[in-house]
Amino acid sequence: MITLTEKAISAVGRFIAGSETPNAGLRIEVTDGGCSGYQYGLKLEAENTVEDTVIDCGTVKVFVDPVSMPMLDGMSIDFLDSIDGSGFKFSNPNAAKSCACGSSFNPNPSGTGTKTCS
Fold first, then answer.
1. Which of 4, 50, 53, 109 has the greatest number of CB atoms lying within 10 Å of its CB?
2. Chain centroid to CA 9
3. Residue 102: C-alpha distances to residues 28, 92, 97 (Å)
4. Which pTM was predicted?
């Protein structure tokens, strides 16, 4: 299961309310890329697909595709807002390695496929 903190739920709710198009929820996905091999992707979606896992987080629904779900299961997402900036913070127990950017990770303990940060 993926969990969102109250701050993350509130932030996603604000993004959905401020969107020019209707959105049913937040898609969280894993794609190739980033410094460590994989990166998190977040986007608002008009609807989920039949293959998605749909997670009800109160006022927000989260959609996760079947390929991303095993790499995200157990993850917690927070939203930080400080003088240094704002954004989502990912705490993923499946990440064996991650980059300082916080948006990139590798689930493989050997680090196969990792890239060097520049």
1. 4
2. 12
3. 15, 10, 10
4. 0.81
